[in-house]
Protein 1
Amino acid sequence: MADQKSALVISAHAADFVWRCGGAIALHQEKGYDVTIVCLSYGERGESAKLWKQDGASLEGVKAARRKEAEAAAKALDAHDIRFLDAGDYPLELDRDQKFALVDIIRAVQPDFMLSHSQYDPYNTDHSYATSVAMECRMIAQAWGHNPGEKVLGAPQLYLFEPHQTEQMGWKPDVFLDITSVWDKKRAAIECMQGQVHLWNYYTNLAENRANHFRRNSGGQSGGRNAEYAEGFQSIYPRTVDVL
Amino acid sequence: MADQKSALVISAHAADFVWRCGGAIALHQEKGYDVTIVCLSYGERGESAKLWKQDGASLEGVKAARRKEAEAAAKALDAHDIRFLDAGDYPLELDRDQKFALVDIIRAVQPDFMLSHSQYDPYNTDHSYATSVAMECRMIAQAWGHNPGEKVLGAPQLYLFEPHQTEQMGWKPDVFLDITSVWDKKRAAIECMQGQVHLWNYYTNLAENRANHFRRNSGGQSGGRNAEYAEGFQSIYPRTVDVL
Amino acid sequence: MADQKSALVISAHAADFVWRCGGAIALHQEKGYDVTIVCLSYGERGESAKLWKQDGASLEGVKAARRKEAEAAAKALDAHDIRFLDAGDYPLELDRDQKFALVDIIRAVQPDFMLSHSQYDPYNTDHSYATSVAMECRMIAQAWGHNPGEKVLGAPQLYLFEPHQTEQMGWKPDVFLDITSVWDKKRAAIECMQGQVHLWNYYTNLAENRANHFRRNSGGQSGGRNAEYAEGFQSIYPRTVDVL
Amino acid sequence: MADQKSALVISAHAADFVWRCGGAIALHQEKGYDVTIVCLSYGERGESAKLWKQDGASLEGVKAARRKEAEAAAKALDAHDIRFLDAGDYPLELDRDQKFALVDIIRAVQPDFMLSHSQYDPYNTDHSYATSVAMECRMIAQAWGHNPGEKVLGAPQLYLFEPHQTEQMGWKPDVFLDITSVWDKKRAAIECMQGQVHLWNYYTNLAENRANHFRRNSGGQSGGRNAEYAEGFQSIYPRTVDVL
Amino acid sequence: MADQKSALVISAHAADFVWRCGGAIALHQEKGYDVTIVCLSYGERGESAKLWKQDGASLEGVKAARRKEAEAAAKALDAHDIRFLDAGDYPLELDRDQKFALVDIIRAVQPDFMLSHSQYDPYNTDHSYATSVAMECRMIAQAWGHNPGEKVLGAPQLYLFEPHQTEQMGWKPDVFLDITSVWDKKRAAIECMQGQVHLWNYYTNLAENRANHFRRNSGGQSGGRNAEYAEGFQSIYPRTVDVL
Amino acid sequence: MADQKSALVISAHAADFVWRCGGAIALHQEKGYDVTIVCLSYGERGESAKLWKQDGASLEGVKAARRKEAEAAAKALDAHDIRFLDAGDYPLELDRDQKFALVDIIRAVQPDFMLSHSQYDPYNTDHSYATSVAMECRMIAQAWGHNPGEKVLGAPQLYLFEPHQTEQMGWKPDVFLDITSVWDKKRAAIECMQGQVHLWNYYTNLAENRANHFRRNSGGQSGGRNAEYAEGFQSIYPRTVDVL
């Protein structure tokens, strides 16, 4: 059990994890990782335009619909553990208790790596807020004096998944992951997002183009591996290795 | 033979490779890599103060002494292939033919990764020049139209080894390498540098402190690995991976 | 009425809008825009030294004096809509209700563009706070689930007006506006600031020098337009155009 | 005739202008601009892998083939003025006379704006070199003492077109151009590049995704314009305007 | 008394001031400055692993132990004024009253310069939070309307002392201070930190290596001063001088 | 004689030193420094528009006129040592011999500090080139193997003086120098520049505004020194100090 690998995704809104790291989730599940997805909010106010345009829309109704979509998407990715903190969106704000609830999850999961948003997003301050919370809670989870007796956290990598307009967010990928083998699952998860059909093609294009970057960086015209779909990530912390 | 791993170090002056990546060289030799070291110059004019203070010092004499030291250091690191382009220092400048000679070496080595200096160095423009040459020659080595028929280069990583004042050079390590097992070899190579005794302790301190960073980033107080000596490197290109 | 152009200025303290974008306000009013100015605070504690040095100074008295000055300045700029959120200064802090009040204004104005402070200011954290609030409230104003039924906001540009020490604030102008035709109005507004006479000359010098930059960038010695006074702004978001 | 608008593209290799600003070229031709394309090299050594893999490939043969492709692509974009400086590639290097030849072209064209590569490219130093030459020659073209009597250059904008891996090149677009109306021409130009079929889909995906960014920045869900294909550019110099 | 020089250290946790600026404290005390040290928290939860591993550890017990250590360290540095705001750690958060208490101290001390943490720290958000509070309270202390009648603050420099992994924190020193004459005091203060013995050697190595940087920047091989121990600092504000 | 203080200005074109550091030159002369000014070119091609518009203008005539102006300006600043390398401008390029001539001057002067341009200038590549040459020659002057037997250079600071559009050049001042006492000399030197009358007022405005920044950073409203004219500089290297 000590060898069970795990990962933790911290998603500001219910759908973010699908577009931005659905491939990583499915791939690591396939490799035997337990991937836990935490949605800090449902994106109910700010990312549910289509639902709000329907007659009789209500906050609770929108939340329920978004939750259902997110659960279906997680299932499509073979992820069995998805949680909703319901902290509200636009703006997203966690109080101390909500942060400690997130710390509890981090400690329970003991992730080998974490995934969250870019550190800057002038279009969506919820995204950068989620990442600052991820860093803060990672730190708290490492404190021996926080709930003494619990197993403290080690030093997992925090990967920032791809934001919508990378250059405006100052996001720079330093690792590309080949998700060809699980692309069908990611596409199925994407298609669970009925309210954002206009993004299906966008993220398919993106995955194809990131595969081009994967090929270039794995050998270029002189033999790069033939990835067809890929995702990019930016690391916050240095790696520690035994070979370069 | 296709599986023989290799690496290429591009060092502006004859001693740079010792302080900055001696551990990486010895470690990868130990792991079966063939590491080739290219010294673009001997550092004969600018990094040989002690020799110039001796009576009767001459350019050729200084070069010879520096070469001897560098060869001894390479040997201490178990590196059997060290080359000297003798392109001159302070300033270092390669003409087209010298660049093409470097391209020839790159193609012959077909390195799995390359090592060179930081991209900026306001104290020593030879260092940043060496890196710009490394990038340019990496590009030329990838060109199908350069010496058609030769095996072109793939897409090896270019790691920047640690400069003397990291913050002034804008250098940020994203990978720490545990060199504990080969520390004795690196120290022996360092001690070949008789003209720079004042730096022996400096780089020993540094290796110890980088090991602290290694431990922090591999798990911190909750179980980081007990490295005693480490080196840091900055990657230029993204990695391509199958698992995060 | 759908074609009525409008703009929104978000000013941390009562006088900021005068020095930093008084020309832009007067010019756009002249061009038929409705410009709304929101002063988040009066700058009553931190930017009213002269008033506090007077006998019998009180918080309410200082606020009233600052409001009067700001209203006079707005009038000098032909701006008819100036509002005061009275959120306090040094430090400036808006709670959720005050942010939502700002969102109400944004939605009511439906600005073609917004103006606020630089994103960083080590001398005055109120300034950068105002900009972070501007971004956050812009995002909330775009949310279909915030006060459903209201007209949501589009995607107006956010221009950062010139801070007092541009280089220390990391502010870089990408657009210069010719304010020659309204300079007299800006100077009149500046002269409403009786408590800060020492800045009158400063901002006149600045407007003259920015006009030099305007001329250089509009054609230089080969025919740049003869602007005499200008203001600079930094854009947060990319533009969308039909011609370069 | 004084009113004839014009633009100048400076392309390191023969095909760069197609992928990176083919839409801008076709669109401005359509709007009555005279667009001049300067290919500093044919990309004969470094960007013609497919041609070099053919039996009997020679440098002159590859150049001729590349020139033919580039001319066909220019024609597909309705650009009637394409020039080849044949300065060599991998590495690209212009001597003083070649730079002055480029200055002659700049002065003859008197462009309203110029287009070139990103300022940094760790994969391809020819690209960043081309931009540094563009800046240097723009400066020379402004000098009254260079070929006295000739009409000197004003202060045209220099737009950097999109590089292949934007984040690695530190490229950040600040303007998106709607190229929907000329997409068919750009696609036709792309299809002239028979040696790089693997990039056709890549750049089609990209144009679709950049249109998403165009829509977001022109109004988002609240009415952004329905662009289907777009290109992004980064400006080097500030704009000078009469309205924000 | 008006000529009494003073300095203020703002330390997130009880031990930070020892490692990071113990030399500066002892040196300035020796030069006749009154140095006040403010510990915003004891670091009781997050930086006291060794204490928490002991049987019967309690929050109050850990705080008391940490306070005792910090007081002993201050004494070793000849600093007579150390204060504890007890604002809690992991996460550190000051409410408005606590910030105003810090402002009271700043005004009472009227420091010639202030010292605090780096502006960014992805490992420890308490550190960067402390610096943002330092800047905010410096600003409040300058406000004539804050506790009118009190002496307002001038414009003291804010120096950022060295964080644990400088490159990851984006910290760049622009001044090196020779602490050779007080090294014994700093080492004695370091040895008060019984819970962090693993850091003693680390910070001794660091002080030795920073002395190398001191020597290089004070004259290099051509006569740099023979400092044996040094500390580095990054300035936030420009200096004002009468000679370069 | 060993105590004679000295400084070295490296100016790309003949007039640059006047606008950008005329105050520093005059002030340090007044303080007993020997200030040497090196003009790498006359700015004959690119910065002499007015002269070229005159009938019968010739390269030699323009150079002579520019030299005369520069010499007069130096005299107005009480600088007795001005040299002209005549390396040509637009573009400025120094070959190895010209660089070594500059090294000779650096060694002869043994400056306590050096002054040159910003490191980046998209309008004028001669400026950034001059700074890269200054750095390279500073390095060569430190080499014991360059002209062995000569006194090698120590580690003088390199200050970057203020460029024309600071924000576009990425220039950030970290030191402001009070030049009030020598302002009349700087203004007199400025008035020697008969060809650039349009800049007289610009640089007077600038000096006044930089004095405002001086006052702010030396104490602000609570007692900053009453400088009336100032210049700003950016340091390349860290300082080494005995007191913060």
Protein 2
Amino acid sequence: MSALTPLPAYSTYQFMHVTSPGPYLAHLQLNRPEKLNAFSRPMWLEFGRVFRQLSLDEDVRAVVVSGAGGRAFTAGLDVVAAREEGPMSGGGGGGDGHGNGNGNGNGGGDPARRAKGWRGHIEEFQGCISEMERCEKPVICVLHAISLGLAIDIACCADIRLAARNTRFAVKEVDIGLAADIGTLARLPKIVGSNSWVKDVCLSARDFTAQEALQMGFVSAVHDDKDKAVEAALEMAARIAEKSPVAVQGTKELLNYGRENSTAASLRYTSVWNSVALQAGDMPAAMMGVFSKRKPTFEKL
Amino acid sequence: MSALTPLPAYSTYQFMHVTSPGPYLAHLQLNRPEKLNAFSRPMWLEFGRVFRQLSLDEDVRAVVVSGAGGRAFTAGLDVVAAREEGPMSGGGGGGDGHGNGNGNGNGGGDPARRAKGWRGHIEEFQGCISEMERCEKPVICVLHAISLGLAIDIACCADIRLAARNTRFAVKEVDIGLAADIGTLARLPKIVGSNSWVKDVCLSARDFTAQEALQMGFVSAVHDDKDKAVEAALEMAARIAEKSPVAVQGTKELLNYGRENSTAASLRYTSVWNSVALQAGDMPAAMMGVFSKRKPTFEKL
Amino acid sequence: MSALTPLPAYSTYQFMHVTSPGPYLAHLQLNRPEKLNAFSRPMWLEFGRVFRQLSLDEDVRAVVVSGAGGRAFTAGLDVVAAREEGPMSGGGGGGDGHGNGNGNGNGGGDPARRAKGWRGHIEEFQGCISEMERCEKPVICVLHAISLGLAIDIACCADIRLAARNTRFAVKEVDIGLAADIGTLARLPKIVGSNSWVKDVCLSARDFTAQEALQMGFVSAVHDDKDKAVEAALEMAARIAEKSPVAVQGTKELLNYGRENSTAASLRYTSVWNSVALQAGDMPAAMMGVFSKRKPTFEKL
Amino acid sequence: MSALTPLPAYSTYQFMHVTSPGPYLAHLQLNRPEKLNAFSRPMWLEFGRVFRQLSLDEDVRAVVVSGAGGRAFTAGLDVVAAREEGPMSGGGGGGDGHGNGNGNGNGGGDPARRAKGWRGHIEEFQGCISEMERCEKPVICVLHAISLGLAIDIACCADIRLAARNTRFAVKEVDIGLAADIGTLARLPKIVGSNSWVKDVCLSARDFTAQEALQMGFVSAVHDDKDKAVEAALEMAARIAEKSPVAVQGTKELLNYGRENSTAASLRYTSVWNSVALQAGDMPAAMMGVFSKRKPTFEKL
Amino acid sequence: MSALTPLPAYSTYQFMHVTSPGPYLAHLQLNRPEKLNAFSRPMWLEFGRVFRQLSLDEDVRAVVVSGAGGRAFTAGLDVVAAREEGPMSGGGGGGDGHGNGNGNGNGGGDPARRAKGWRGHIEEFQGCISEMERCEKPVICVLHAISLGLAIDIACCADIRLAARNTRFAVKEVDIGLAADIGTLARLPKIVGSNSWVKDVCLSARDFTAQEALQMGFVSAVHDDKDKAVEAALEMAARIAEKSPVAVQGTKELLNYGRENSTAASLRYTSVWNSVALQAGDMPAAMMGVFSKRKPTFEKL
Amino acid sequence: MSALTPLPAYSTYQFMHVTSPGPYLAHLQLNRPEKLNAFSRPMWLEFGRVFRQLSLDEDVRAVVVSGAGGRAFTAGLDVVAAREEGPMSGGGGGGDGHGNGNGNGNGGGDPARRAKGWRGHIEEFQGCISEMERCEKPVICVLHAISLGLAIDIACCADIRLAARNTRFAVKEVDIGLAADIGTLARLPKIVGSNSWVKDVCLSARDFTAQEALQMGFVSAVHDDKDKAVEAALEMAARIAEKSPVAVQGTKELLNYGRENSTAASLRYTSVWNSVALQAGDMPAAMMGVFSKRKPTFEKL
């Protein structure tokens, strides 16, 4: 399968371009470059759907996410579309068969009724973006150029973040009059060490560079340009995809659990989880590989 | 209103000097320089009170805190006063009309009864300092020169921390025979990434410099001297004060919530919070500002 | 007592070499250098036991842990021994009088029954390593040379981590087909700020250097070689051991509590804890020491 | 709309029969009486879907759930179907477009791989049943005759439980060799006061009567037969449906939150929730109704 | 001191009538019988204040709360007053020097700004009622006649509830168009076993009798009339007041902690709490009393 | 094996008499009748040890606990022995090889140092009693006659509680000057529905009867005398012991987890737990038993 041709199983998406640049690898590109990859509602519904599919796809062991085009990872919410789609539109949110639709518009009603519409709308949006975090395969996110607002919400759901040198980051929401509500404020304090810096960038909405993101530990590496960053991400993903999927997927699950729960709860969960994971064929296969110096192969997962 | 004249609404405080150096800005100076801004009980009661007032004051959108005088942000607890005021004094804690007084002295009684006195005393003290964290407006704390013990407890309650180059930091409590109990040990592990460093400075009580604090992410920037640091803080505060107070105050609330709660709980809380915040006039006003390139104005909050 | 002669009270251990290089100091060396200090089951049972003893030993106020020999802090699990001892052996786990034995082998039975064996096995192992964290005295861990797999689990339980320049770190478990289950995945996200880095090293199993560990805040300092690092650790331990044990041990307890619990819960716990700790003789003694400039002495604890 | 004719908006369901026996009322009948209303996978997928729809349907303010036919509320899982559909089938779980499918069969693979299949399967099933609890409208569940296994899982998700005198309850799962995993063990300890009784019925799998269920507080009332119980449920639902939907739906949300969270967290959540709910027109309308003794009407929600 | 004369230390309250009907006993009567003891804002501010005072008063070891007059424990919120005082009034909430005032009225502003006013208002109100739960002395609440809405919020904060036979209970809030927000929905699911009953009475707002309250465990006993119930409460309080205050107050604290926290956390907190409580003189005194069959006396607390 | 002869594997206990009255059954009798089964330190250490052994013993699937002799289940702590053994003795707590010893006596030292001794003492004691709860096999506790103080702590750790009609229950601790600290205050609020009753009996230390315990749901049944109660417990245990041990032990684990954790966390834990438990041979065997109407047999666990 060429790295450029979309994977057939993912060919129905309009905004999600998925290729397989190597064995067990998926490369997902946000694909609306003419709009700086800004998100409309159909786009975030697809975003949720593609990660549910990637999570279950046995032929995928690691995922790289990047933004198509040179100008933006994503400029964030498509504000123009938002006015027509969401509770802002005053026309009700409609439904998408997925069941999380927002039944209330805000065309009428009192603040409590409009609030219900907003709540449904925000939770649907949060739910779609969070599918990236719930995806059982590791996800490496490559940011470049314009990476504002929703870009940070998305990056916070990734396991590993890399950046091109030209990335222009900002938690931009306060500049358009709202507190970020798609995940940044929930996750950033848990994934970056300096709370002072987190507060600074979220309260001021100021830009920060790839270099600053690296120093603060928000990203793990900075590369000269987008192509180099994607290449590095794919290499990292390829190395991970060679390893036992039982080990890799368990590690992701347990690290996420460890971040969210007390050490005692986490140790207990780990022992229950591994009590079956250790019964896989992967440990013997991996050890054999170590001793024989041959690359082991692992059953699908 | 001159930046030097105390705001009339805050003129009754003895140790808290509050000025307004710009629109919607408050600058609070710990004002007991002749004692290196060391805290007596009346001073920490005032500290709690001033932050409750700032939190409610619709004319304040961002707060800068610094210490008056060149020698200290604060030298910490006023140990001499503490001997006469608290359970250490043997004379009972008195009351202050605020209701959190410590009814038991330790002049007599058995260890359990003295413990009740200490408990009340510590909780009153914690409660006053924590008002800075509870203040709904962002608080930027500027540290300089002597910044020991309670200085760290206070700084941990700020949203953003800046330091002058000459700051002498120390979590000094173990050197006077106690574990820090006004908040440092509860908050520091959550606001700085390196637990090894946190343990080092708390267990050894050693001094650390502004530079080290910057490297570890405890402060966000170091400036040449106190004046420059205060100036930078005021500029930062001014930029924040220009933005939507609904967005800014929501961002502070949600970041604090995110730091303390699981991601799932935090996402839920965010959707409920924003379901009403998004009904403010701020988002349209801010967007209009973006499109028109004119500075938007926002209703009081 | 010479620093080289084992402390008599600790002379029965086979793999744990405990000396006292100074007043109130204990230096524990993992002592199986011919096997690169790899852990067999008897070794980890001893590891748990020695920390329970150190925690109760009134003559110990700070502990340094290092690995005997020049080649490794520890190479991790002794894989060869593991095949014969644990559920992998197919022969049942036996008992050790400690009561946490794993009653089920995996020689027979269905996956659920084997899972019970694994669960008991993992929990016993976790429990022994966690004793280092539960030890009420501060523990400084010195890593050098090979420091793989279990080395990271152990280091995560220490309060402060130092490294020799030649340390070769890796969270190696995925390379042998499993998710690390002795504590790394539960603790690392809480003790290092950059979640992106944590995911990177845990998912890729790649080596990282002492320098990288320092930059990410995993260790607090890097020294030229193992001897220098041990020396620095002993000096740090000696400074801590001179201080009030009530203050030091309370600080450790409260920092660990603060890392795991909400700020509100932690403040409450702190006030209850200190309501009795402040009744020790240590605060007056320490203050007297400050005023008199003489080194205070403190009762045993 | 007759109480017997299915509501048009709900006419596509195969196993869920939804009628509207009064204003703002929905009556959902589990409708597979020829199989004692036993659940196959298509049936539980419908169960989830119908509750998502009811939750959003502005014409529904209270829901009654009962089982069609005289012989059973539900006999639980359709064991015969389960052998063909789930991981037990050995054929993989397929997909349903809902995205929670279980990608792994257990036809092959090792225990860890089969575990992934089971996990996906259980979570999909749990998720569908939990939609009843998540439904924002109050749900009153009427049990009668055979009410085994899954019947208890479902009843635990209801807000209020009523029973016919002939109900035969049992937490039956241990009798077919498994621990109940669709919610009973998670919820029953939180919704019934006597833990001793909960353990008794769950560990012994014994039958218990409606009378015993009433005494233990599991159900709120027992009626002579199914028809009387349904009638009572509909009356109760009708009284609730007359009230302010803002008040009723908020009460459900806050009681569920209160059951799961600490009092402090719950009070905080309540104040945020009601800060917008109190801006509805419902409070003035309701008060006017009280004063004028006329039945108020409320806007849709 | 006569049981009828107010205790001098409590003579300044307008709505709180506090007498001492026996050694170490306080009897607090809600004292606005001409308004059915309905609560205005000054009244709930007093309610908070009187419990803070009782909590600290060393001459009080047990508290009985009842409602003055024969017609009501309390009819709940004084709706007429509420229209003039709170955010409903449109005039801003004012301040009371206590610092928790609600700075925002809802006279103007958008929904987000009005929400801030409501939030402050609700939290102040919750805070005052919760002082009854925080009071370190046991509180026995006697309900009689009209006991609606806020009556349940208050009763939920008591340790022990008794009722007169004529009590008319209702969680009345949904009938006036809101979800109860002063504590009932947060606490009731934790203090009564049958969640089905809790949902029933909260969603339907129906009246329930003392007998029903007894059967469901909401109250511990029902007495023939208010006088008999108060008498029984005073006897119960007198028996508790004879016991060690260290034991009694510790028991209250630990039971509340146990209700809100996991068993593991609660056991840990218990051991820390009792590590100092057991150093009181109370245990020897109590044991001496047991052996000598003489009533022990205990130091004040 | 006769029901009267101790099981050989349990013959070394002094105070724990363990027999096997049927297949896979263990009957543990507290065996110090001449002291009313009062607990000395050696006795509670044995209590912990015997439950660790029972938990691992594959020949045990259900446990009944009762007190030897006719006069008492247990009179609680052996107060006379406690004066000589614990921190009360002033002689230090010694060690027992189990590592949880209390290293500090209270003969000397200040309150903080004595507190450490008490803390260690309480935690060792709690730990031993909690082993009954941690035991993976269901435990049915039969109470009779004198059942004071520690009797309630122990009963709270059981899964199911039965009582003889003559049982005299009391949470007696406040009468000897302390708050119960071995588990009653942590567990009782979670296992009995009426918090008002829980507070009543814990604060008043009053006796309550078997009948009252039944009404409040503390016990599940009352039998005419101890023999009948033991017989009923053994029958109940026998029925449980016939069932799949995978199903039974999983049910206990998941119910305990459900009691302590949120529903969401509990559902997740359930799916992970059952993902391997469902791979046991027990489900097919049990189903075959149902269809064939023959009693299935299950592999050991």
